[in-house]
Amino acid sequence: MNADDLKKQAAARALELVRPGMRLGLGTGSTAKHFVDLLGAKVAAGLSVICVATSEATQAQALSLGIPMSTLDETPELDLTVDGADEVDPQLRLIKGGGAALLREKIVAAASARMIVIADDGKLVQKLGRFPLPIEVVPFGLEATRRAVAQAVEAAGAAGELVLRRRPDGAILVTDGGHHILDAHLGAIERPELLAQALNVVPGVVEHGLFIGLAAGAILAGEGGLTILGG
Ligand code: 5RP
């Protein structure tokens, strides 16, 4: 079974959590895309739900499948959000933002009664940080913000290079919110809560990819079957 099959398996299991009338948050990335595809088929077969997307890409996909879409202004409280992740640790702390959608992903997750992560089990790590931590920053004052981020990272006991994310064509990546992303190559994050707090107070940092206390559960698909964390 390849990684994409595993992602689809996790998405299919998450679909079992969806009930008629639910208000859903739809994640971003290749795993979440499977969930939206499967949800679209259910909607076509008569399931009634209302959804909020975490990115313009997911919004376009959902609309193309005929899924009824709303916004957090019209629907500020969601029942369930299903989203992927770049890393998950056993305490359900996450690194997200590999797809540059972390800001909307975190807002939607925070507005949800329950967030469930779907992923292949290669995303499960004992310690976060092998995947570069995305930090979303405003373009104004980028170099000053980069230095302040480096100091905050150091103060939190971590260290590593901060790399401005670029698109495949070499242009600086711009997020859906009009910001840039610094990817922090930290290797291992010993104290994720401390790092999150340190980054939260840096002027110019809009959001970071440490999701702590947001995921209620994770569905991780591997060759040996599904691993379920949390509930
Ligand atoms: C996007 C994300 C994604 O959920 C994360 O990058 C995982 O993506 P994939 O399912 O493609 O591995 O956080 O910002």
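^ ribulose-5-phosphate complex. The two ends are 26 Å apart (CA to CA). Residues 27-32, 83-86, 96-102, 105 surround ribulose-5-phosphate (CB under 6 Å).
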